[in-house]
Amino acid sequence: MTAFSTAYSSGAASASSRVRPGQTAALLLIAAFLVLFLVAPVAAVVVAAFRDKATGAFTLINFLDFLRTDLLVRSFWNSVSVSAMSVVLASVFALPLAYYTTRFEFRGAAIVQTLGVIPLIMPPFAGAVAMQLLFGRNGTVNLLLGEWFGINIPFMEGLNGVIFVQSVHYFPFILINLSASLRNIDRAMEEAAQNLGSSGLRLFRRIVFPLAMPGFVAGASLVFIKVFDDLATPLLLNVKDMLAPQAYLRITSIGISDPMGYVISVVLIAFSLVAMWLSTFAMRGKDYATTQRGGGGLAKRRMRRRDAVVAYAVIALVLLLVLAPHAGLALMSFATIWSYSPLPDAYTLKHYVAVFSDSGRYIWNTLLYASLAAGIDIAVGTAIAYLVLRTRVKAARWLDYTAMAALAVPGVVLGIGYLRTYYGVTLPNGQALATFWFVIVLALAVRRLPYALRACTAALQQVSQSLEEAAENLGATKMRTIRRVVLPLMTGGLVAGFVTSFATAAVELSATIMLVQSNADAPLAYGLYVFMQSPAGRGAGAALGVIAVLIVGVCTYLSHHIAERDRAAKSETGARRQ
Amino acid sequence: MNVHAHAAQRAQAAGISIQGIDLSYGATRVLKSVDLEIEPGEFFAFLGPSGCGKTTLLRLIAGFNVAQAGKVLVGGRDVSTLPPWKRDVGMVFQSYALWPHMSVRRNVAFGLEERGVRRAEVERRVEAALELVGLGHLADRKPSQLSGGQQQRVALARTVVVEPKVLLLDEPLSNLDAKLRVQMRRELLDLQRKLGLTTIFVTHDQEEANTICDRIAVLNEGVVQQVGTPMELYDRPVNLFVAGFLGTANILPGELKSSGGERVFAIAGGGGEVPLPRRELPPMGAKLMFRPQNAAIVPASAPATAGRTRLMGRVSHCEFLGGTVRYVVKIGAAEMLIDVAHQAGEPLLDHGRDVAVDLAVDKLCYLAS
């Protein structure tokens, strides 16, 4: 995945000539954390999959059983086809938005890019129910279509529903990566082709699209993996014959000793790894960022009137579609009754009142868990980044690789691993460690660590080593230099990383759904999931969903704002230096 | 591409005619009524400082910029309204713009494929073009695996393989190191002579333009200042900008006067008077210009000879450059540079020494800005 390819071009720094005891201690502490809460649980899952249930001996029989069970084989192919179709549909949404906003000068390009990212700031399963009400058999769209044209389109029937909801939710990954790639193409690339007689679609097909391919592949593989691993969306849409839901159902209904849950987990991990490896392999040596010396990307052209009409129509359609879950969720949260009608019968605030009076616990838990997890991520991420970039601790690289490996571990697998590993470990009060609320925090922290680590590494790379050397030269010790010079300079990047981790952890469900034991310990996403299960709870669920969207939305805006301000401040000092 | 093909192409080389071009970006006028005639087969340069409009003018010929007024004729045909892909004007980009997802061979083949040339013919001509630039053995590399000079040659091959009517080069040497630059400019000249292609070369480096171009158009602030051979521009610049942009120039302010029935140029700050040649009619506000090597330093007491004039001054600084010695001589309020060829064993003149600067009257220029 190009976005996360580690760049250590600055080389293992030469600042300190030998390894200090403090560094060794930090290394061991982080290593222990990663081993206990990432490596061991995943290893436990893998081992369990290869172990005979009765004797504990090594066996492949569990995998054979998997292949012999029609339901599981069907689930596997369903997962593959849903993921593949989601990539296709997501590309259909993303391509016109990316193309129009990067190639043409027109009002609203910035709005399109912003609105296009909004689906991400919401748990996909939260929108699923709203999508049922809008696009389901008796939803708004089909009721209107039936009234006007006498037709009914099965948007949400079976796997269609999962594909539709997932592609609407995850298409921004393709939009963001593809737009970045398109913007990085130097206009001379296109002009050279025009100069040699190429134009129009041929030019797009032969030059522009191949050059943007790395971005597209990065986005597409991300969508594929996310959809393949997602648990809550199919469950909420009542689709059970997919892999991740099967793993969940096996463990929760049959128990943690049933080997099939582990086999499915291994298949999930293997598939994630293969998808990541394939995308890296396919794009090896293809870093096509070709802009030079502020030459600016592709030439933007003015749209002719005819183009503009088509463009606006396409963009409006796509945006209506991708913003539908939000609109639907908002409507639901204010609705008294909404079924078999295009719009709710009447509106009320009682769901919000109910949420705040009865379910405040969920919100409080979410804020607590997400901020603890994000705090752990930033601390661990900064320490790893510092060890890798600024010390001679060779083993630090392995911390980095291990932390990044969490990308390939689906949430449901991590949750199963925690149950497997820590169910037998009891706390002093007799509670199983696996059911202790803090384990949810740890799971969230491990899940978000790869993203936080990259943010921390980037932040540290921007702090010139000579600034540290200057502090040491003036008599500051290593620790004081870090505290007084390095950390303040990294603050912007770290805060942005914290907020991103916080926001994504706040709506994470796939790992927590395995670990939540009581409603009192449940975070918002779990509560939302429980509410959405029953028609009566939908109003309150939607209200909770709207609150989640607001939390994530505000955080995303904040992180963007902080990152921008930080960049502006840095470039200011840069200008003064020249 | 064999010898006959070259000859045939030279016979049909196209001239370029630029007529009354006006081009603005918003309120900024980038090109102001530009007129230029470039002869078939000529190696022509657009020379000027950055921001003078030379690249804009080149891109206009290629069709990437659109003028508000005026037209461009290639080989007598008005191409002003044609899109870039229908102009048949070959351009080599400053960044080379080699497509990183294609091998060298596919890069070079691209233009032929777009023209629907048969596959066998494409392969043959790509081979020939790569041989022409000496890169036949690297055809299957990716551009990123080539050095800067090699990339430059691939960009050239990619452009000339389609046998365009004219060849446009946008600062083609600016991305190369100094040594390679000298080598590549010879190769460029060889190639241009071999193909007989009408070529326009954009540069801000006067040495580059002087060494390889038949004629040069000097641009400044969107206006063509002067068109001529390198020697004409150097020896007979039409204004102070051209004089200063091509080589070192001594420029002395002053005013025209009548002195004893004869017209003279009186140097400001009491630097002395210079007689004007009889037919010379200097423009309003003109300043005196001469090149450092067109003056001699003689003892203050020596008498002037016919056709020469003398200014009294004082040595204020000197730089020993090896083959020459560059003296800074103060004349009145102005300082000027005088280059003297160095002879073995000859001592340098002392600082503060009074000297006479000896000038040939007919080598002096009177220029306005």
From TrEMBL, chain A:
Gene3D superfamilies: MetI-like (1.10.3720.10). PROSITE patterns: ABC_TM1 (PS50928). Residues 76-275, 363-559 form the ABC transmembrane type-1 domain. It is found in: Cell inner membrane; Cell membrane. Keywords: Cell inner membrane, Cell membrane, Membrane, Transmembrane, Transmembrane helix, Transport. SUPFAM superfamilies: MetI-like (SSF161098). InterPro entries: MetI-like, MetI-like_sf. This is Iron ABC transporter permease.
UniProtKB/TrEMBL annotation, chain B:
Pfam families: ABC_tran, TOBE_2. PROSITE patterns: ABC_TRANSPORTER_1 (PS00211), ABC_TRANSPORTER_2 (PS50893). It comes from the Bacteria. GO terms for molecular function: ATP binding. Keywords: ATP-binding, Nucleotide-binding, Transport. The keyword Transport applies. InterPro entries: AAA+_ATPase (IPR003593), ABC_SmlMolc_Importer (IPR050093), ABC_transporter-like_ATP-bd (IPR003439), ABC_transporter-like_CS (IPR017871), Mo/tungstate-bd_C_term_dom (IPR008995), P-loop_NTPase (IPR027417), Transp-assoc_OB_typ2 (IPR013611). Residues 16-246 form the ABC transporter domain. Belongs to the ABC transporter superfamily. This is ABC transporter ATP-binding protein. It comes from Chelatococcus albus. The lineage of its organism: Bacteria, Pseudomonadati, Pseudomonadota, Alphaproteobacteria, Hyphomicrobiales.
